[in-house]
UniProtKB/TrEMBL annotation:
EC number, UniProt record: 2.7.1.23
Official protein name in the record: NAD kinase
Broad enzyme group: transferase
Organism from which the protein derives: Candidatus Cryptobacteroides gallistercoris
Purpose: Involved in the regulation of the intracellular balance of NAD and NADP, and is a key enzyme in the biosynthesis of NADP. Catalyzes specifically the phosphorylation on 2'-hydroxyl of the adenosine moiety of NAD to yield NADP.
Length: 277
């Protein structure tokens, strides 16, 4: 199998762990190619892309593969790693032995009505974790949201997140959103620093169509797709829905989301239970 190796942090090039991985894969008969952009994948017969770094690198890798259907496997050299949870030796063993499966992860499609700045970025207009709108200036945003045509009360906040279940442990979690198992077919709508005391994150089916309109005294806002940002006119109208294709994520045998929660977020850790680290 031909494998593309993606390393966003070029300062890690030559890292002993990465070189060991490449040697093992090559000795097992895998063809290897280093990539750093979407054009590097064009015209190549690639069976899998190995993303080396952390979850941010994995998100960039997801943008690179786009609609190609190339499965992405995350190798973790970062801190958390919910998407890139695997160590170098685990990755090599699994690929060479076939001890993995490929799962579908929901992608978001975001269709803005008007943009300032250049939206020509990798993976446009799709996101794996979340789509957000966020204020740039001092003025609070009024965010009007319709779910399949039904209006919600206006959010007055710094911004709004629409996240997938994959993104529930990312930005959405930091603003008080729920943790959702990746296989759950839902979307999460969460305000960022709301000024309404009576608003809460909302879970909707991933089949829902979400329309967003903004009210702001500022002329522009920030619009993001995962870790990609563009500046948008404050009159932005945004339609968010589930994309018509999914990301193919490689999941190693024995991988467990609940175990990842306890080991990476220390869920349930309590020194009174004798579980102090």
């Amino acid at each position: 199998m031909n494998i593309a190796v993606y390393l966003r942090n070029r300062g890690l090039k030559g890292d002993a762990r990465i070189e060991r991985l490449k040697r093992r894969l090559a000795s097992g008969g895998c063809g290897l190619v280093d990539i750093c952009s979407r054009s590097d994948l064009e015209g190549r017969d690639v069976g899998m892309l190995v993303s080396i770094g952390g979850d941010g690198t994995f998100l960039s890798a997801a943008a690179l593969v786009g609609e190609s259907g190339i499965p992405v496997l995350g190798m973790n050299l970062g801190r958390l790693g919910f998407l890139s949870e695997n160590g170098p030796d685990q990755v090599a063993d699994a690929i060479l032995s076939g001890a993995y499966s490929v799962e579908d992860r929901t992608l978001l499609s975001a269709k803005p009505s008007f943009m300032t700045g250049n939206p020509s970025v990798d993976g446009w207009p799709f996101a794996l974790n979340e789509v957000t709108v966020h204020r740039i200036g001092a003025a609070m945003l009024g965010v009007d949201v319709d779910i399949d045509g039904a209006p919600l009360p206006t959010y007055w906040a710094d911004g709004l997140i629409v996240a997938t279940s994959s993104g529930s442990t990312a930005y959405s979690l930091s603003v008080g959103g729920p943790i959702v198992l990746p296989e759950a077919r839902v979307l999460i709508i969460s305000p960022i620093s709301p000024h309404n005391l009576n608003v809460r994150p909302l879970i909707v089916p991933d089949t829902a169509g979400i329309s967003i309109r903004l009210r702001s005294r500022d002329s522009s806002v920030m619009f993001t797709l995962d870790n990609r940002m563009v500046e948008a006119d404050a009159s932005l109208g945004l339609e968010v829905s589930m994309a018509q294709f999914s990301l193919k994520r490689v999941r190693l045998n024995g991988s467990n989301f609940i175990n990842a929660l306890t080991s990476k977020l220390f869920w349930g850790e309590d020194i009174r239970n004798g579980r102090e680290k």
